[in-house]
Structures
1.
Amino acid sequence: MDRFNQLQEVLTWRDGKAMWVTVAVLALLLATGQQGTAKQISMKNFEIAGITLGVTTNHDLERILGPAPVVETPDHEGSRRCYLSAAGDGTILEIESWVGTAIQFRLGSRPDATGTACAKSSLVSRKLATGTGL
Amino acid sequence: MGLLRKQVMAILGQPTAVKGSRMEYKQSFDRPLTSREKLRLKRSGPPWDVKSIHVMDRIEIGLSKSEVGSIYVLHNETD
């Protein structure tokens, strides 16, 4: 009976050890897996139609894409410009600047866009992509 | 525009968050000042105790019918 209890203790210890080893291996695999799929956002993602966020000034923006109606966003010293595909495919590129420099853009489409609040640009079309191909 | 989800993930990797048909990627970090920025800050006057630049990046991919229908990108640096 004593021998049986001893054996039982050894098996429990082994099971416990095995459990911790399994947990450690799984944690390691998960951590490795996350590192493998998470990427740092490349600066190339901030480039579109010759505009680079954080670099291109409003002056350069209008030189590249042409003059556009400016919507002031005084709450944060910003301004927004909208460009519509000259090809008529409804693609819209909106660029927002802060203190004279482009900091964000939104690329999308609006099939019913008439261009009343947007300037038409030949650089804007459905084929337009970021520096990484998005 | 027009890319599939798996193509987006091949470019950007695993999203920080997925909310319905929107994939979000975020990162923020501090970087040291460049020599040009140090000079600009010195010329612009106090405060001169700026030690780093805070960088905030954000990308939102809107999927429509399994394809990329909209892209929002933000890259902001503040001292």
2.
Amino acid sequence: MPGASLLHYRPWRGRFRGVTLSVLPVARISLWMMFRRKLFWALYALGLLMFFMFFFGQYLLAWAETQTAEETVRIGVVRAEPDKLVHLLREVLKLNGTGYTYRNFFWFQGYMVMIVLAMAGSILVGNDFHFGSLPFYLSKPVGRWHYLLGKCLAVAVFINLMTTVPALILFVQYGLLDSWSYFVESGRLFLGILGYGLLLTVCLSLMLVAAATWLRRTVPMIMTWTTLFLFFPILAKTLVDGFHYDRHWRLLDLWNDAYLLGNACLGMAQDTIRPVEQPAVYEAGLLLGALSLLCLIYLNLRIRAVEIVR
Amino acid sequence: MPDLLEPADPRGRDRALNAPSLQPEPALAPFVVVDQADEPPLLLFDHVTKWYGPVIGVNQITLELRPGITGLVGSNGAGKSTLMRLATGQLRPDLGSVQVLGHDAWQFEAKRHVGYSPDVDNFYEDMSGRQFVETMARLCGFSRLEARRRTEETLQLVGMAQQASRRLRGYSKGMRQRIKVAQALVHDPEVLILDEPLSGIDPVGRMEFLALFRLLAERGKCLLVSSHELEELEKLTDHVAVMAEARIAAVGTLAQIRDLLDDHPLSILIGSDHPRQMAGALLAMPDVLGVDLGEQDSIVVRARNPRRFFPELAGLVLEENYDVHRLETLDDSAHAILGYLLGGRRVEKRG
Amino acid sequence: MEESGSRLEVGGSRVGVGADGALTANPSSALNLQSSLESSHSSAWLAWCYLVWFCFLRQARARQMVWIALALLTLITTVVGLVTLAGRVGMEEWRWTWVGGNQPLRINPQEKAGPPVREPPIPPHYVRLSYAETAQGMQVLPHAIPMPSSAAALQDAVAGATRIALARSRFYLFSNWVVFSVFVGFLLPIWSLSFATEALGGEREGRSLVWLLTRPLPRASIYLAKFFALLPWSLALNLGGFALICAVGGWQGHLAFRLYWPAVLGGTIAFCALFHLMGACFRRAAVIALVYSFFLETILGSMPGYMKRISIGFYTRCLMFDAAAGYGVQPEKPSIYLPVSAATAWSILFIAAAGLLVVGMIVFARTQYQDLS
């Protein structure tokens, strides 16, 4: 281009950064691919419904606790007795800043996390294979593992945006509504939330990337993902609660397995979980660990065998 | 280059105003082929406008296409593909209408008369080329036997009869292109919309395709061919429609379009034994805007209005008995014309 | 050269010849083609029928999807078969939990315990007898222990009722867990979703829709052809799959199929119409369908009042409840669930399917797809 020589560009004299940092641009591009879609934001908004219920429930609880002198209080068009309202929010819905609150929040987010990840899987990895953009990544001086780690990092962001981050906001909110000592006394909960989030991040991101690498098209990806996180829970519930099979069949429910481990992270006793018949925490941990390892092995084999063809 | 057009020159000013490129009104000086002017157009764009949200895809385009080949050229984003999609009924105009043999292009009756070779490269990859073309024929309503017969004939026409049994997945780009043209021809449409038909075709194949297109045009078909291969397009036809910024910037033969570009004088290389004397004489001519002395007894003349300039040049040469051993127009090609019409956008010349 | 106002006309029959002057194509072939092609006629009806057949075959090409669907069917059939063979479908093998002393007797281990007591509780332990053994014991008791005839008759009646209840519990459990929970709750929507969204969504994702949209067929008819092509697959999988699951489910499964297959048929057609419409409206139709099936239907389905009447699954279940009313199968809380009659459910499903189909045809006929290339 004749004009370029007039611009007096100097050659870049910087130092190239390590190849490990190539994970970040891969993740950034993947995040942008999702964030630019309105559908993602619609699903995220649906996913935040539960968070808002918890969030405003805690505010309602804090307010109701100041109204105990009143016989009834008015919430919109509804009248309620403050004592009963406080009991409902604290004891029934467990909006009491204990591990119950965060455990329940993680549990209820399961559906939307699963749906968002189903969409993410087909877009983040499936599109690269389907539309032939993978060669652009692999023609750069980055390893194939860096590509995969970048994708896992992007998936991790989605998971944490829907689970860990809102849970931490609820934690901070409760502490601000309650007292400063809450933050000190509930440090274990804070770490438990982080631990639960980390567990979900590692397991789900590996499983999703492995599934998306195997099934590149949207519908098969969704069928497989829903089988893992919808069908198996239904099957587990049918076998254990319906036909009274051994509680170990509940291990089929991967979200429940993560729930058991998260429960342990939050320092909650297992017998507080309903239904009561649950496998042991270590069994759930072993299963999730084995699955994650299988996914890693599969990805390793898949990376070696990948052929960039039409 | 300084603008040598004298502001006082009334013709220059009028011509600048009447220049075809980027005017609010399509004040182009078209031509009409008298012998076919009475025939109804096969493809008609009538004040067609199409928006993609806030972005305008095509802007007030009026175009009539009759039997023959029309090249559609323009830079990326000019609106060529949008125009073709409007003609094939994939898009509907927001204003105006698109008609194929009197039918609205959006309606299915019009698609019977249109054969479309898109620029997409996505097929039913598990099918063979033969199966694909036959399927397209069956989807046009032909019986199985008829579809098979047509398929074999069109495959032979595009030179794919031997390889058509292989799966599309294993085809090269050129082979896929041939299959696209074959499925466009299989139902014998009157109008052929070909988006980059020469893309990926080897040079020998290109010659075959060009010959095929000419034959089809001879048989009364209307072909609208878009291409970036301007040299090939020049070999195929000199009727072009130039698009720029969602408008038709110019329509007609290359020579006619060239004539209209008064603000871009024609550059002519003249080789003579007496370059200086000739240069002096040329400068006296009213249509000559400038003369450069070149190397090896050659001069480069910049002149407007070539139709008037060349006879005057001939008269001058005979009168003064100049010895002219070389005469060549330097920017009469489609590349140059396109470059002038598209303003600052460069048109990269290959090869 | 003349200006003609605002009209620009280009035309001409001039045929250019390349610089080499050679025409290496086969001219006679082109001329022959021209004359032979002109003589034949086409039929839009023939084209449409072929389109239906073509789309039907294309559905099978989505191999991964078909294999996953079949794998799911195999899995659930195996599970149901094994559970049935083990005799675990009914309540016969369930056992009492005796907590004794100061704790209330709990029939179901999952049932919530009563108010706490101050004395240290005696740990619960399972009674050795199962329900079936208990019922058998109740039947034997009048003969083993002398008792007045009236007491013996009462004991016999209770034992007989218990036996019948246990026998019927098989159908009840099969209906509640296998049919309502597993099949209607997951398999029916997912099998319908997979084929219905793949019909148009697969074409859009593969960017091959342009080939259909440039054929001389009305766009609404293309949409209709796609629907008729996907329906056999969805029906075969849903009805056939349901038949297979019920076939391995013992007599309770056979009864369930006899009673519930019309509801499965109606639900499949309605779901397919809905998901096919999503394929026309949305690029990622499978995700939208997923949100509808497993988020909205779940939430709406558990809402009290009339909100749940928006969901197709509600009417499918109502048809099933109506069919099995004589066998004691009903919603857990009918006063909250508020089921509708079979006639109403059929009407709604039929209207919904027809309405969604018509809406889909209109949408598809009017939509300009930007993602064709």
3.
Amino acid sequence: MNDEVRVPINDDSDLVPARAEGRALATRQGFSRTDATLIATAISEVARNIVVHVGRGEIVLRPLDELRRCGLQVIARDEGPGIRDVEAALGEGSTTSRGLGLGLPGARRLMDDFQVASAPGRGTTVTMVKWRVRDELELMRERRRRA
Amino acid sequence: MSVAILRQGDYLIASIRSDLTDGQLLGLRDDLAERVGVQRIRGIVVDVGALDVIDSFMARALRSIVQTARLRGAETVIVGIQPDVAIAMVQFDLNLELLRAVLDLDEAVALLDRLTGREGRDER
């Protein structure tokens, strides 16, 4: 997909462009300012998770367009040691290392869909989506534009 | 440096101008803690109005600034948290009770006057 944006994450200074790209894409996808802030915050959390626990990885931002809704998918990928117990990592109040206990549950609350795929030695991929329902007016305008 | 620190009497006003890295934010904490002693500072205002994201790490760093400054003998007030940022911060199950926040600089200085027992020290 050519609208996809990739941001390499190597240290904490890379969180700044990751947040900015996320906000820009959210705005292009028609999200409100508040939703764009929630998305940028969630991106910051998963990107920081990479920096703190693995050191390097990448964030992929992908616009999703469906008939009745559009969205922004965020994929945070690393090749680190993986998470042995994903459920525990997502558990509220788990305080392993710096931030995991807050970061992932916080990001989950900020977004609509949230999945973590991980296995020991196989890295971790967090995939999350924020959706926006497209109302009749927007659909009508689009039909008119195409006509 | 993306933080401007101004001194006004025994208060410091730290304005965060742009998106900070984690290192810069912790650097600010250390710098403020140092200045409290060297410059005999009683109150600190941290202006975060330019930040369009405050994630859980940054929220904890702000809390850490408040706690560190307090242990050095100064009170801290946070100014200018954007409405969207406030909405996002609530999603993190963080205890933010230590963060005293107000809307603008005048209120911040008034609150510091109260906290440091200077109420009515000037003409107002």
